Amino acid sequence: MKAPYFIETLARNGDVLHRHQVAGLPIRLGRGYDNDFILDDAHAAPAHAVIEGGADGRLLLRDLGTKNGVVYRGKRHGSIELTGDTVIRMGHTSLRVRGADFPVPPELVDRTMHGWEGALPGLAGMLLIGIVALLTVWLGDTRPFQLSRYLQALAYGVAAGLVWGGMWAFANRLFGRHARLGRHLFIFGCGLAALAVYKIVSSMAAYAWSLEWLVRYGMHVAIALMAGMVYFHLGTVRPQRRRYFASSCALLALLGSGLTLVGNLQASGRVADQLYMPLLLPPEMRASPDRSVDEFMAEAAAMKVRIDAERLKHVEEERAAGE
Known about the structure:
Blueprint: E1 5-10, E2 16-22, E3 27-30, E4 37-38, E5 49-53, E6 59-63, E7 70-72, E8 75-77, E9 79-82, E10 88-90, E11 93-99, H1 119-140, H2 147-176, H3 181-209, H4 213-216, H5 218-237, H6 242-268, H7 293-322
Parallel strand pairs: 3-4
Antiparallel strand pairs: 1-2, 1-11, 3-5, 5-6, 6-9, 7-8, 7-10, 10-11
Helix pairs in contact: 1-2, 1-3, 2-3, 2-5, 3-5, 5-6
């Protein structure tokens, strides 16, 4: 490790808060003003530690008999050899020392999409959230119009968006230096809009062409959309780890779908979310040909035969168990 030396103060997430250059050894560290590096930490001693050169040219940090000592990987050490990646704690301050010859990785490709930041994406996201909230109430409203119901839904939607986006913005600030609240609100709004559009379009298509699987397995599409929304949130926090986040979110989506199938099987004996297609839309939307009464009665008769056979089998099993 070659001079000059750089003492870095680190945040809990590993980001560098402050970097101080020292020309040569020894380097005295402590709270006192006569040190080469001053620790603004009430839990650090006035003369806390000293960094000296070892016999082989490496750096050695030595505790100067303090109450709280020098902590490395959760254990207190009287002295410790320093490399460029050795993070030690003195009091409540985390530090590491690097020389001028410490290698740094190549620059990262900027994938943060700076154009999708600020007030404009945030306002667009809030607009989408408000539209979805009002549309949801309107589609399910069967009572006389009352403005208070729509205003209440709008307030709940905006509040949910602010809480959700605020949580991700806090994580972004903690792990990525910038909050990017506007982009997180936009992601949440787009996710809600995608869920609403799928629900409306799938319901209409299922009713029009008798595509029951669109509504009977719609929960899996909702899980996939939620996983995609979480992926974009995580990609905003740490753009350089998008591949890892993509695989993790895909795995979580598969796990969620699997748990949904198991839960449906335990609850109803079937893997579908619903036993039938519970949609009541105007008859004019029907595009598939109508079924005749004879076809319906034939299917009902075949269903009766299957149900009677299952009932008879169940009775025989109970009788055998009683004997």
